[in-house]
Amino acid sequence: MSFPVTRLRRLRKSPVLRDLVRETVLTRDDLVMPLFVCPGTKVSNPISSMPGNYQMSVDLLVENAKALYDKGLKSVLLFGIPEHKDEHGLVACEHNGIVQKAARALKKEVPGLYLIADVCNCEYTTHGHCGTIVNGDVDNDLTLVTLAKQSVSLAEEGIDMVAPSDMMDGRVGAIRQALDANGFQMTPIMAYSAKYASAFYGPFREAAESTPQFGDRRTYQMDPANSNEALREVALDIEEGADIVMVKPALSYLDIIQKVKTNFNMPVAAYNVSGEFAMVKAAAEKGWIDEKRIVHEILTSIKRAGSDIIITYHAQDVLGDL
Ligand code: PBG
Questions:
Q1: Mean of the per-residue pLDDT values for the chain?
Q2: What pTM was estimated for this model as a whole?
Q3: Is 12 domain-assigned?
């Protein structure tokens, strides 16, 4: 049936009708807020390229997380800025590591908040790469050892879910095996499966102090030009035991999110990364865009593309409107 019998404007006539037929509705349940924890007490360092985000010491992190939890946030993704770094990122595996400390404090003070921890070496290595360096490049299999160790250590301190973001081959299997061997069979793995070598991570590297000191991450993160490879990455991670698969960044990769969702019957996460966030904030500061509406449209589009979980620095700003 076509015009004039069919008129698509008919269902756009009133807000009630538009609400009735809306296909995608963003909720608080969809959102994960990344938080950065650093050493010290009463420390709150603003991250200049990510307005409203801070490197926070454990005490202030707990305060902040509690306030967000009271506003309806259910889950956070933790990143650590350690006191010292080493060549292999072993400081990430210590009982008194920075994220371990944060996990213990958060579990005690905000027990209802679901804790996800990023698992990677780049915040913990002196060279800023995501693993152990051998002959000028990250050695895949050596890195698996520290990633597995880091994951077990985090689970021991109360982290509910681990999220490996390093892009080593075989890391999901190695982490699953280590978690299971240590009694953490029920700790889920959210794998950064299709993680691209993206310029959109710029502001994050300021926040996490994780800029590589030489070279770049193109020998382990994916080429932005590829999509078949993304599906192969996702398939392998599922085979190795990933419970949730992630696409990162989100906005330039909505096609990948959709392909992953339609090709695999899996929960999909998308990471709306620091550069995507910074662009919105910068334009809003200049008064060029309506921030609230833009953010809602962006997050809805990520969900519409097929993402069940959205990791976003906007989470803290939108909670009150959902
Ligand atoms: C660690 C990691 C990065 C991000 C999340 N985990 C940075 C990177 O790979 O360089 C980026 C997050 C963001 O930009 O918001 N490997």
A1: 97
A2: 0.97
A3: no
**Nearest C-alpha to atom 2 of ligand 1 is from which residue?**
165
- Bridge partners (DSSP) of residue 118 are 163
> 272-304 burial string, b = 16+ CB within 10 Å, else e?
bbbbbbbebbeebeeeeeebeebbbebbbbbbe
Q: Count of domains in the chain? A: 1
Please tell me what DSSP assigns to residue 97. Answer: -
Query: Is residue 1 assigned to a domain?
Result: no
Tell me the C-alpha distance between 75 and 170, whole Å. Answer: 27
Is 107 noted as a catalytic residue in this protein?
no
Predicted confidence (pLDDT) per residue in 79-107, tens digit: 999 999 999 999 999 999 999 999 999 99
Nearest protein Cα to ligand 1, atom 14: 201
Q: What is the pLDDT of residues 51-76, one digit of tens each?
A: 999 999 999 999 999 999 999 999 99
Pocket of ligand 1 contains residue 78 by CB under 6 Å = no
Q: Which atom of ligand 1 is nearest to the CA of 275?
A: 14
Distance 120 CA to ligand 1 centre (A): 9
User: What is the domain-level CATH number for residue 106?
Assistant: 3.20.20.70
Instruction: Tell whether 155 is covered by a domain.
Output: yes
Peptide bond into 39 cis (omega under 30): no
Contact 161, 200 (CB under 8 A): no
Q: In which residue are the tokens 């996990």 written?
A: 103
Whole-number Å distance between alpha carbons of 73 and 16: 27
Predicted pLDDT at 138 = 95
Half-sphere exposure of 167 (CA within 13 A, CB side): 21
The verdict on the CB of residue 30 being under 6 Å from ligand 1 is no
pLDDT tier at 300 (50, 70, 90 boundaries)?
A: very high
